[in-house]
Protein: Polar amino acid transport system permease protein
Amino acid sequence: MDALQLFLDNFADWDSFVRIWPLLWQGLQLTVLLAVVTLPIAIVVGLAIAVAYSFHHKVVNVLLLIWIDLFRSFPVLVLLILIFYGLPFLGLKLPSFAACVLALTLNNSGYYGEIFRAGIEAVPPGQREAARALGLHPLQIIFLVILPQAIARVLAPLASNSLELVKTTSIAALVALPELLRSARVAQEQTYNPTPLTAAAVIFFVLLWPFARWVAKLERDMLMRQR
Structure:
């Protein structure tokens, strides 16, 4: 019983939580904002990469593959360091929020681009040929015929990568952006108690667990369709 009380006093102290909740709430809002801003940008950039690749222009495809491999190979933490601390030496200094959005977008656009590309290439060639026979413009073929089928085929990996992106927003703490993890660390220093970190972990779990279960369902459904 003493051990349990000791654990609760150190990792789940209610009084500490009540005192630091406004700080955690502020961090949570910034985390959600960072995810909401970055997610659609990264998806659109990744989709643009995949659509451009689908036209099979040799030089363009080589450049796109370099983009995908380059930014998927760089850890997002390293990208953030290079952008936030390296670009000022080139005369370009970005605010912390913009630097985080750019780092997350560059890294995830490579993943999204590869996911969309795999989906597009999985669509039978006959679909494109039939649409062309109907007189559709190449862009109409891509957006009206190919992409709806491609997205349906890769919805599970798209959702899974989106979940990872949301979790990766915690790297913003590196540049002192007061997102949820950074706010929890500041609160821990104020309370001399790790309860804020426990609270941040619980908040992340409550927010992301339903999304994680949805991703798992999508993955199971995809496996069932492949059998």
Notes: The two ends are 52 Å apart (CA to CA). The mean pLDDT is 87. Residues 80 and 103 are 5 Å apart (CA to CA).
